[in-house]
């Protein structure tokens, strides 16, 4: 089963970010925009994991029980891998990034202790809003990305969730498998 661990964002923040994305869509670029209901901050993508190992992932998430809930605030906008060759458009944090990094580090340590391989990239708190598929109208999109101020929205971070991701032609479907409320 294809799984990932993430911090969900509340509906109010999803609505706000959807409105921001609507402005970027005016570029009419070839981008697969993330559906509003799928917006989240990924702590760790594990990919294909055998069903019998899911309890080990849940135990790793449970090890975060002593972390306190915190406030986060979006306020940065970026692309991966580089501005000259963007493939992914993302929104980052201007507040709460340190706390999210601490949660991710503790989670990765717990996963390693359960026998999962270490993460291959350093953690960067980001919420993917779109994946660029081709260069169609890319210059218009880059212009909008440079002109539109990053979206600023405060939201609570109070849970860590394990999701199953099912890929479909219409886009991924995420099913909640487990969640842990932070203190």
Task: Set out the fold topology.
Blueprint: E1 2-8, H1 11-24, E2 31-33, E3 40-48, H2 54-62, E4 70-82, E5 85-95, H3 97-113, E6 126-132, H4 138-147, E7 154-157, E8 159-166, E9 173-181
Features:
about 180 residues, five-stranded antiparallel beta sheet, alpha+beta, about 25% helix, Cyclic Phosphodiesterase, Chain: A, 4 helices, four-stranded antiparallel beta sheet, globular, 9 strands
Short summary:
With 183 residues, this protein is α+β, with helices and mostly antiparallel strands. The chain contains four helices and nine strands, in the order βαββαββαβαβββ. The chain is globular and about 45 Å long.
What does this structure look like?
There is one protein chain. This protein has 183 residues and is of the alpha+beta class. It has one domain: Cyclic Phosphodiesterase, Chain: A. The chain is 27% helix and 39% strand. The protein has four helices and nine strands; from the N terminus they run βαββαββαβαβββ. The protein has helices at residues 11-24, 54-62, 97-113, 138-147, and strands at 2-8, 31-33, 40-48, 70-82, 85-95, 126-132, 154-157, 159-166, 173-181. Strands 2-6-5-4-7 form a five-stranded antiparallel sheet, sandwiched between helices. A four-stranded antiparallel sheet has the order 3-1-8-9, covered by helices on one side. Helix 2 (54-62) packs across helix 3 (97-113). It is globular, with a radius of gyration of 17 Å.
């Amino acid at each position: 089963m294809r799984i990932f661990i993430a911090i969900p964002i509340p509906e109010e923040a999803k609505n706000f970010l959807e409105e921001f994305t609507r402005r970027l869509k005016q570029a009419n670029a070839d981008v697969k925009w993330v559906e509003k209901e799928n917006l989240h901050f990924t702590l760790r993508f594990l990919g294909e994991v055998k069903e019998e190992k899911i309890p080990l992932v849940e135990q790793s998430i449970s090890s975060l029980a002593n972390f306190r809930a915190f406030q986060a605030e979006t306020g940065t906008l970026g692309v991966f891998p580089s501005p000259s060759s963007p493939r992914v458009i993302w929104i980052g944090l201007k507040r709460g990034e340190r706390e999210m990094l601490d949660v991710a580090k503790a989670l990765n340590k717990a996963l390693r202790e359960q026998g999962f391989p270490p993460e291959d990239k350093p953690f960067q708190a980001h919420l993917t809003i779109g994946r660029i598929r081709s260069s169609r109208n890319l210059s218009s999109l880059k212009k909008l990305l440079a002109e539109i101020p990053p979206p600023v929205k405060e939201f609570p971070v109070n849970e860590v969730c394990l999701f199953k991701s099912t890929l479909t032609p219409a886009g991924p479907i995420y099913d909640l498998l487990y969640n842990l409320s932070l203190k």
